[in-house]
Design the sequence.
């Protein structure tokens, strides 16, 4: 028993050291530049793949060469990323860096798939690092010992650099107070590329040694990035010491749980993260840093049309959408209806996020939580409570709203980047719970669910329906299309109405200037929480509708990539407009549809487009007309009519 | 409660509107506000001066609720407001003016004022109404908004985006927003910082014109301006009240000259 405990501790320490190297770069990058680098996991994976490319042709001994060459290459990639994508965004709200690096995740991850293909491969280790040795009574693998010793030495070297060199001094000073460093006449901006490159190299280094320990696979980046965030938050954003303590702690806790209480693996670290964010948002060793300014850029003011035209255009769009099912099977395949249903549901989901993100400035990185909640609430209701779709949807909305209130109650007191992190933690907690609970069907999820539209056993099953008028066939799928479209239009009108009310106007004032809103007498936390509840309920409705139609729910609904994708849609379309995100969802799925015809790696293209959007068109597609107008008309573009802006919402979907 | 000895107050002595009782604020080991007993009469124009780091802004933050007090109490209109939130204090009648950039830049001028106007009577509407009834259908609120727009002379640009206003109009708007919350006491933290002489003059005239009925509490670096405007002056130094009195008394005070004015001349 003692032996197995020390064995587990030893394994935990091994993983812990890898985490330390990974989190150190992430944390220092945040400390100095206030960039939350989602792509850090991909740089980690890239390191392992570069090493693989070097080791495979030359055999195991090349491992030692790769151990230095691959991080160097990844470091160069890091410098390039900083210079060409991150740099244009300094001065904007730090949340844009989250969006940007999320786009880079899609790009780099797909590049890895493209070059090295799917599936996992093992990274050959050199012969000297195989076998086992006895240390203090533990039968330890040489490779693990190597990781601990070598990784530890590496961390020590980084620490010494930060502590004892002039370079390190400037970085540490910069992470405490950037402005002060600038005032001292030091051009800290020059150090940014270097810091980013160093962080990337450290991540690559971690990727290589873990690759030799486990295997190398395209998913390895995605699987470490969330634990890395947990570590950085636990230790304190920007603190190297925090990264070390947090990394070792998370490595050991995770390994011990896997050995002794597997049911809690994946739950405990997120609970820890939430607790730390609530009681000590700066983390264990974090220092107080200034919250970065910079506004979220909305798509309002982008339109050139007056209100009346917009209303007509919106009505025309809805009318056009209503015609879609009529041509299915004749003008185009019935698949078009299925695709449109997906766009409508995601449009609703994106709209729900826009309501909090675009109107109150709360960037939720865990909105998939509510989508997943809605989906599972419908599935569980239909399986165990009632087969009525109405009951299921009502419960989905209620449960999502209730959980949103709870999450909002805990999360909204922490602002900005911390709010993004805590919502991410809640979503990951839920995601991991879905895997572990019986009622949610574990990793399989729930499937084969049927329903009827009615109450108390009286109603219709859409599957039984088929209306045929000449060549036009209205199937159950077509009817569901109308239900989804109705839900979207109703949600749009409802939220728009709210935004024109006193409640909505306060939301807009919070987005514009929260401090001012407080000092004209608004308890802004309460308004934000209400907005969050409404948003959560709508996201739950979207998830519920999906399960109602598809008949299944899987844990992937609540995965963080989903949360990221819905943010992509909101930004693509234009935040703060309600209809922009719906357009964003359409473009997202439209692109996917077109691109999958050419390549399985459509996320590469999508990610690239998204990165370009974040850099060059952060106000989204809806701002395009106003941006282009000056070039088209040759003169100054027609200014957006101020009167129309009063509503803040212009036009229909 | 602490009493300040006030001998020569040439203004009609009103009742006390604001009082702090041994107010203390500590940041770790550092005491930013050290047992401050401040009493402000209704209708008074009071200035707070003191060298950098004297704790002027901290005192403001304690009065408006932006920071919680470590010890002591704040009374407004005779009521203990020490533990109330900033927004609740605004509703009790404590307005805070910021420098000009502090408006809702992306919203229209009217919307800026209307939001402030809405804030003070939101309890009159029920929850459902406040969620769904469009803002343009609240007659009383909109009439008040129009009155204030007229008072600050911005009725012609009411539908313009606040960001698009010229400098002077933004300043008017900022003060209009404060006025719309119907404050009894307004706190100004260096309202003329970074302004030219003419701009400073215009701002002060505006404040005196628009906020003629309010009690004013001002932090200001411009000593000449303070001497000219204030009914009474409180001098802070290292978190404590160093002196208090009329402009003449302060000008003649030896301690003030040593600790503050002397330091300023260097």
Sequence:
């Amino acid at each position: 028993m003692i032996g197995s405990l020390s064995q587990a501790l030893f394994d935990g320490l091994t993983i812990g050291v890898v985490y330390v190297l990974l989190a150190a770069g992430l944390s220092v990058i945040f400390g100095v530049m206030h960039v939350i680098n989602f792509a850090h996991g991909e740089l980690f994976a890239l390191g392992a793949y570069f090493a693989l490319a070097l080791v495979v042709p030359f055999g195991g001994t090349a491992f030692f060469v790769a151990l230095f060459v691959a991080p160097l290459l990844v470091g160069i990639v890091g410098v390039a990323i900083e210079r060409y994508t991150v740099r244009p965004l300094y001065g904007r709200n730090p949340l844009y860096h989250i969006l940007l690096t999320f786009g880079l995740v899609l790009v780099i991850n797909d590049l890895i798939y493209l070059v090295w293909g799917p599936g996992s491969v093992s990274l050959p280790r050199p012969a000297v690092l195989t076998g086992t040795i006895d240390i203090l009574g533990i039968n330890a693998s040489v490779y693990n010992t190597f990781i601990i010793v070598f990784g530890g030495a590496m961390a020590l070297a980084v620490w010494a650099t930060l502590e004892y060199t002039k370079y390190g001094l400037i970085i540490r000073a910069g992470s405490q107070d950037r402005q002060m460093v600038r005032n001292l006449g030091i051009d800290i901006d020059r150090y940014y590329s270097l810091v980013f490159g160093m962080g990337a190299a450290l991540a690559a280094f971690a990727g290589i040694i873990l690759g030799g320990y486990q295997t190398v696979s395209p998913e390895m980046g995605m699987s470490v990035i969330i634990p890395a965030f947990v570590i950085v938050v636990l230790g304190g954003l920007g603190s190297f010491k925090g990264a070390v303590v947090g990394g070792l702690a998370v490595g050991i806790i995770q390994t011990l749980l896997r050995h002794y209480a597997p049911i809690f693996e994946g739950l405990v670290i997120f609970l820890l993260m939430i607790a730390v964010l609530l009681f000590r948002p700066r983390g264990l060793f974090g220092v107080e840093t200034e919250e970065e300014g910079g506004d979220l850029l909305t798509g309002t003011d982008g339109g050139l049309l007056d209100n009346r035209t917009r209303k007509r255009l919106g009505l025309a769009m809805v009318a056009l959408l209503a015609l879609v099912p009529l041509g299915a099977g004749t003008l185009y395949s019935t698949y078009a209806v299925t695709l449109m249903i997906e766009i409508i549901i995601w449009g609703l989901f994106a709209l729900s996020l826009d309501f909090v993100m675009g109107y109150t400035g709360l960037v939720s990185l865990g909105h998939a939580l509510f989508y997943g909640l809605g989906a599972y609430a419908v599935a569980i209701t239909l399986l165990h409570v009632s087969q009525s779709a109405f009951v299921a949807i009502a419960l989905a909305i209620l449960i999502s709203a209730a959980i949103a209130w709870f999450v909002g109650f805990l999360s909204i007191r922490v602002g900005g980047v911390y709010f993004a992190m805590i919502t991410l933690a809640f979503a990951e907690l839920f995601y991991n719970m879905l895997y572990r609970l019986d009622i949610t069907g574990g990793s399989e999820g729930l499937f084969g669910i049927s329903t009827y539209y009615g109450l108390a056993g009286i109603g219709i099953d859409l599957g039984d329906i088929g209306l045929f008028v000449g060549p036009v066939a209205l199937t159950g799928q077509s009817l569901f299309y109308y239900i989804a479209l109705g839900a979207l239009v109703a949600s749009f009108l409802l939220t728009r109405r709210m935004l024109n009310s006193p409640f909505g106007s306060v939301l807009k004032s919070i987005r514009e200037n929260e401090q001012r809103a407080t000092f004209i007498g608004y308890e802004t936390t309460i308004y934000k929480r209400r907005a969050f509840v409404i948003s959560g309920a709508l996201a739950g409705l979207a998830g519920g509708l999906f399960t109602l139609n598809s008949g299944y729910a899987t844990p992937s609904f609540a995965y963080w990539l989903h949360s990221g994708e819905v943010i992509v849609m909101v930004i693509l379309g234009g935040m703060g407009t309600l209809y922009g995100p719906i357009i964003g969802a359409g473009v997202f799925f439209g692109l996917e549809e077109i691109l999958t015809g050419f390549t399985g790696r459509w996320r590469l293209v999508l990610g690239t487009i998204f990165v370009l959007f974040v850099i060059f068109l952060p106000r989204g597609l809806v701002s395009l007309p106003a941006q282009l107008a000056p070039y088209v008309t040759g003169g100054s573009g027609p200014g957006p009519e101020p009167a129309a802006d009063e509503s803040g919402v212009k036009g229909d979907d | 409660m602490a009493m300040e000895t006030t001998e020569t107050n040439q203004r009609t002595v009103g009742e006390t509107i604001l009082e702090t009782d041994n107010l203390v604020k500590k940041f770790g080991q550092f005491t930013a506000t050290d047992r401050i007993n401040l009493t402000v009469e209704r209708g008074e124009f009071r200035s707070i001066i003191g060298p950098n780091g004297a704790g002027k802004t901290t005192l403001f933050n304690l009065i408006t609720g932006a920071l919680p007090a470590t010890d002591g109490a704040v009374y407004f209109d005779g009521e203990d407001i020490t533990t109330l939130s900033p927004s609740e204090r605004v509703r009790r009648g404590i307005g805070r003016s910021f420098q000009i950039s502090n408006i809702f830049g992306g919203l229209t001028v009217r919307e800026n004022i209307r939001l402030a106007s809405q804030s003070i009577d939101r309890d009159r509407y029920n929850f459902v109404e406040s969620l769904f009834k469009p803002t343009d259908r609240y007659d009383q609120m909109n009439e008040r908004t129009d009155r204030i727009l007229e008072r600050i002379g911005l009725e012609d640009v009411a539908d313009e985006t606040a960001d698009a206003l010229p400098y002077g109009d933004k300043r008017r708007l900022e003060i209009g927003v404060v006025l719309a919350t119907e404050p009894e006491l307004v706190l100004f933290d260096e309202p003329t910082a970074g302004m030219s002489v003419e701009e400073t003059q215009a701002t002060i005239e505006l404040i005196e014109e628009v906020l003629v009925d309010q009690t004013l509490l001002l932090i200001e670096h411009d000593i000449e301006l303070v001497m000219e405007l204030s009914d009474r002056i409180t001098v802070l130094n290292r978190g404590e009240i160093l002196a208090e009195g009329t402009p003449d008394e302060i000008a003649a005070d030896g301690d003030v000259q040593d600790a503050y004015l002397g330091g300023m001349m260097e």
Remarks:
- Chain B touches chain A at residues 64, 85-88, 90-91, 95-96, 98, 102-108, 110-111, 114-116, 118-120, 122, 125, 130-136, 138, 159-161, 164, 177-178, 180-181 (CB under 8 Å).
- The domain at 14-93+183-266 of chain B is CATH 3.40.50.300 (Rossmann fold).
- Chain B has ten helices and eleven strands.
